[in-house]
Amino acid sequence: MLLAGTTMGTVAEELITLNNEAVKNSTIFSYIGKYKEGREMTNGYVDLDYSIWLYRLLTPLLLTFILPSLFVLLIYFSISICYVFKLHRRFILQVYNDGDFNGWDVARTILSVLWDAHGWIFHGYEVCGLENLPETGPALIIYYHGAIPIDMYYLVARIYLKRSRLIYTVGDRFLEKLPGWKLMGRIMKVSPGSIQSCSSVLKEGNLLSIAPGGVYEAQFGDNNYELLWRRRIGFAKVAIESKAPIIPMFTENLREGFRSVGFAQSLFIRLYNAVRFPVRPVYGGFPVKFRTHLGEPIPYDPTLTPEQLQEKVAYAVERLINKHQRIPGSILHGLMDRFVSRPDKRD
């Protein structure tokens, strides 16, 4: 009996020991399982949080490069309107039944309404000094070239609607290589132009606009608004040959609406000089306040050489910049200008 009791006690102790070890092992496995499960949940949470953070970080950056594409879409929408009128020009002429009627006038009116509405909605566009632009007769408008010359689109539309006068515009040759642009340029009178052709336009009593800085100024100017004309005097020769008055022009906050990227400028300059095509990326589309200022006319002076006239016009444009523009330009302040009027600086 004693031996049997001893044996049963030993067996019981071994069973208890095995049971305790099983409990411990199950506890360990349970803990490991929960740890792994928690780790997976934690990893999932971290990935989700990182995705949200990345989304919030990149969204403003992507928008700054996507918004300029809307400008391109608006241009091609305008081009599509031109092609619609090209296809149905005869029908339009039959409807109006007027021999003096120009079918392209309807297209110009629709385009002007479209761009004027865009300028008013997105930038609260205004024109100051409109009285300096002659209602009849020739005038040469010399303006500062922003990263995108959207202000000239707005001015052309506004003048066409208010004065029924079309401003001829000198554009860079690369525009002719853009698909569909030739028809748009023909309707809105945008062409590269030479000294002789520009003089002829003015002698016929038209308005003509030229940005002496051209694409170079558009690509490599910044929010300090320095003129980058690089001794260009072609516009001065045009003014002297045609004897037309010059109207200096500048649009406030133009560089705050669209800007060129600020890195690798020397690399982009070398690349631009090699290909003569806009290569520096543009970002923006910010709805800042745009206000175009037209300065007092500079009358024809036969005593001035082209170089002297260029200096005189450059000084007039710089005066407009110094008087009306906050330097350096600020996107935030440009947005605030939509709601709060800022007094001009004194000369």
TrEMBL record:
<dbReference type="InterPro" id="IPR002123">
    <property type="entry name" value="Plipid/glycerol_acylTrfase"/>
</dbReference>
<keyword id="KW-0472">Membrane</keyword>
<keyword id="KW-1133">Transmembrane helix</keyword>
<keyword id="KW-0812">Transmembrane</keyword>
<dbReference type="Pfam" id="PF01553">
    <property type="entry name" value="Acyltransferase"/>
</dbReference>
<protein>
    <recommendedName>
        <fullName>Phospholipid/glycerol acyltransferase domain-containing protein</fullName>
    </recommendedName>
</protein>
<feature type="transmembrane region" description="Helical">
    <location>
        <begin position="61"/>
        <end position="85"/>
    </location>
</feature>
<feature type="domain" description="Phospholipid/glycerol acyltransferase">
    <location>
        <begin position="126"/>
        <end position="249"/>
    </location>
</feature>
